[in-house]
Each structure stands twice: as C-alpha cells, then as structure tokens.
Model the fold of this input.
Amino acid sequence: MSSVWQTVTENLVFVLQFLGLVAAIFLIAYGVEKAVKKRTGDKERVLATRKVVVIGVFSAIAAILMVLEFPVPFAPSFYGLDFSELPALVGAFAYGPVAGVMIEFCKILIKLVLKPSSTAFVGELANFAVGCVLVLPASIIYLAKKTRRQAVLGTAVGTVLMTVFGTLFNAVYLLPKFAELYGIPLDSIIAMGTAINPAVDSVTTLVILCVAPMNLLKGGLVSLLTVLIYKKLSPILKAAGKR
Done:
C-alpha cells in the first residue's frame, strides 16, 4: 500500500511541476510579447477573443500530428519524430508567442484524450518544453520585425536552441525522471540506445548521438515547412483573427 501511495505522490508532484512550468512559460511569453508590442507601437491585444477559436483548431491539428509520430532509425523506440510544432509555430507567427504557447499546451491536453500517456507524462512534458523552446524565440524574433528574413533567422535560432535545450533537458532531468517513475534502471535505457548505436555507453552519449540529431532534424523540417507555407496562410489567419 505504501509503495502505491508513493507512486501516486511522485506522479502528482511531477504533474504539478509540469503545470508550474506551463505557467512560467506562459508568463514569460506574455511579458515579452507585451514589451515587443509596446516598443513597436502594436496596439493589438495579446490574446483577442476572436483568435481563441483559431488557436483551438490549431491545437487540435497539432494534437493529431503529435499522435502520428514516426520512429527514427538512430534513436530508441520511445523517441519519435512528429510535426506537432508546425501548427504551433504558424499560429505563433500569426498571433504572437502567447498563442504559440497556448497551442503547445492545449495540444497536450487533446492528445491525452486521443491517446493516453505511455511515458508517465514525461514524453508530454518533453514535447511541450522542447516545443516552446523552438516556438518562443522564433516567434519573438519574427514579432520584432515581420519579414521573411526575420522568419528564417527566428526559426534557425529556435532550432539551435531547441536542439541544445532538448539534449541537456533529457540528460539532466527527463531520462532520470522517466527511469524513476517507471522503476526502470537507467542502465536499461542506455542499453536500448547501445542496441542501435554501439557508441552509446552513457546518458551523455545517448542524448548526443540520439536526442540531438532528432531535435535538429525535427526543428529543421518544421522550420522549413513554416517558412514555405506561412506567407500563403497569413492573409487567411489574419482575417480569421479579426472576424
């Protein structure tokens, strides 16, 4: 009984930490967006009511894309490549960083309805946190000056930051937490990486050889698609946000 209670308590603490992270990122996004809008003279509200429906639609699309993840040959099976950051990044370009964070969070909630967590919520936390590290810098840079050059610069910076953060976050927190919540020795997780790449012999080599390339690939593909399609979608999204 005590072990069950301990497991429930650990999971509850983890969920509360997750929600705390969400609140912190939202406040950061809100503060930065307000500051940039004030500097550029943009008087549009950070989150106008008319945008909420569009954000909801983008969140649903992102959740579906999150479920449709693909295995990558250079990483263990519990890692998957998905394109759920694409709607979040497009939405953030159209409506600002706060909208991007909202899409990232709402997609997690919708995804959990479509497909319950198979990683004790660790995968969902990773997806949200790493996704925000791509979306926030990219959309803030684009918000400061809305040009194609800024969009390319923003997505490039976001991809690099996402790769670095995702690698460190997995090594320092996510993989140890996953092992703790599931009661799996960390060595067993490393062994899954070793089976794919014999050079993997520690958490450090696991994240460098498996996690970093996956995040770089994901960020690059999402960024490329965003830059290619955003300008075509922009007039439609702006009109929808003003109705």
